[in-house]
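[09:14] KT: can someone run the structure on this one? pasting the chain below
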Amino acid sequence: MKLKHWAVGIGCAALLAGCSQPVEGPTIEVDAGALPLVRTVDEHFQSYNVEMVELIGGRFWRPYSSLEAAGDAPMSDVTDGAVGLSEDLFEQREPIDLNNRRLRTLAAALGPAYIRVSGSWANTVYFQNNNDAPLTAPPEGYAGVLTRQQWRDLFDFARAVDGEVFTSFAINQAVRDRRGVWTPVQAQQLMDYTNEIGGEIFAAQLFNEPNLSQHGGGPREYSGADFARDIAAFRAFTATAAPDMLIVGPGDSPGVPAAADFVSSEPRPDFDVFNYHFYPGVSQRCAPPTNEQVGTRREEALEESYLGRTDAAFAAHEPLRDEYAPDAQIWITETGGAACGGAPWHATFVDTFRYVDQMGRLAKQGVDVIFHNTLAASDYALLDDHTFAPRPSYWAALLWRRLMDERVLDAGEVNPDLRVYAHCLRDQPGGVSLVAINTSDEASAVSIPTGGELFLLDAPELESKEARLNGSALTLGADDSLPELSGRRVGAGNVTIAPHSIGFIAIAGANNPACS
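[09:31] RB: done, structure tokens below
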């Protein structure tokens, strides 16, 4: 896919959202050539989840259209299944088709990326290590079955889309010894078969969300000391089975007990990568939207009260990384608009603001990789989970991948009405790429010292499932081909950012020394 120029003579009516208009909001002046380097993120900064339950098929979040009373289904302490929540929240789904041409085309355009195959369902999955017909039910103690073919398809998919596999293992009672300590009875078989098919697990965590073990098929009573003991057993196993594989942890979800309990116990867990999960709220599948502490409301979608929650989670985890794993990268290995599959509006353009703002602020603060949950399942996915059609946030992800490289620049303090972030421009020495996020009802502007190209994302309305680039609807072409991302030439001075839009500004001639 190429980045091409708009013809200079195109008129305002044709450009729609790209037109100049009176600027009533803030104007942010950015001296692109002088912006200092802050840090460098991993080249897989934009990564994503393909949940284990997607790979094997099983009960995942029920669509809102089939929930009789969204928001009324309570969380519960049921621990017999893979997830300790009311069964009314889930619906059976078939395994994802990783050979689908559209899915591969769209995923490849975001590469390179890490592909995390985990989630609570991975905690209780049984690996059927033979070529017999798939089991119709898992053995006692397990909640799902992973076949050899499904695991092979994952690595074929990863190779096709420039991905690296990151996974976790079964930790249920069936893989524990009489003392309750984790054993590699399943992990060894999975590792052996991975080697047999020429695959490589780049990174792994022992299991998903150890601080919510009772909700994920693990032991009901599980402490930081239990986790430390299991990590020691896991390290002993991987030292021989996969000495080059990165060990990731603790992988906690916000809750009780706190992450500190899972990094400070003895024997002290040793992690190559420090990770955690973050959602700014919980969808109405699991919490009524009127619950302002944990719920997520559409009215807050563009407010700092919602967007800024990501800062508090990072501030809570960075000191733990600094103390207990000072040389480790920080990965957020699950995030999205809301836990429990996302709210209905997370499949629309309005969630694109959270998606881009979160990447901008966390890249600058210290996060190295962000795994969006998910690529193609439920309301928070980048792609529709039935058709694999791109949702609005996918187009933002694609622009980020094409324009923002791994070097993060300091664009100054963030204005809550016009958030501006800066990276070096990808594949353009000396170039700078800005992203300006206008969440207000008024047009704002970014003042730049030299000309560039504007890639302005907006939608017919905030809760539209369509996105436009410089006024033109973004759609796939014949044979699911991606459209050209067409920038509009802008001169030095004020670049208008329309209300409720996101503007990427590519400044190839910035001559920034940090980007040379």
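[09:33] KT: thanks! The chain has two domains: 3-36+408-515, 46-378.
[09:34] RB: yep, looked fine to me
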